[in-house]
Description:
Structural class: alpha/beta
Mean pLDDT: 94
Radius of gyration: 17 Å
CATH architecture: 3-Layer(aba) Sandwich
Shape: globular
Amino acid sequence: MAKLKIGIIIGSTRPGRFADTPAKWIYDLAGKRPEFEVELVDLRDYPMPFFEDATSPAYRPEQPNRHVLAWQEKVSSLDGYIVTVAEYNRGPTAVLKNALDYAYNEWNNKPIAFVGYGGVGASRAVEQLRLHAVELQMAPIRTAVHILLPDFLAVKGGEKKLDEIEHLNQGANAMLDQFTWWVKALKAARDNTADAQQKAA
């Protein structure tokens, strides 16, 4: 069986961002799973304009903007997503919400998991993102990783590394266990649907 393609989406683009640290950490943990082929997907590489199209990508999937087209192609190529989440004013970053809005069909019937960080581990931003994911016909994973302020400050200040904090590693592996099940189940379901449609054509 071909390996399942997993994208670790870095959900912040600001200078000096912390997001690279949890992205690399969860990338390494996910990469230990033999079922997965894992890649980092950096939103800095997809400098999309703010969404102002006349219709949703759900109704008009063709897109003249080359950065948006590249983003849609990348999202389509993946079987599941793990997103690093910062929290601004009790919500996710604008650039991450914008990236979600610039695809639709490409997200459908795939799982998404979250690694949040900051004052409350980005729990309020993650909660909003779960609602967005449902609207995009994704399966948001119940278990998330929340890097709370004491651990965030210790890692950011260089006093600790994420792979040295046992409760975060335990939480991340619990999330990955759940995520792996959903990636496999939804990939099988998508393949079965595609086979049935092909036979009916």
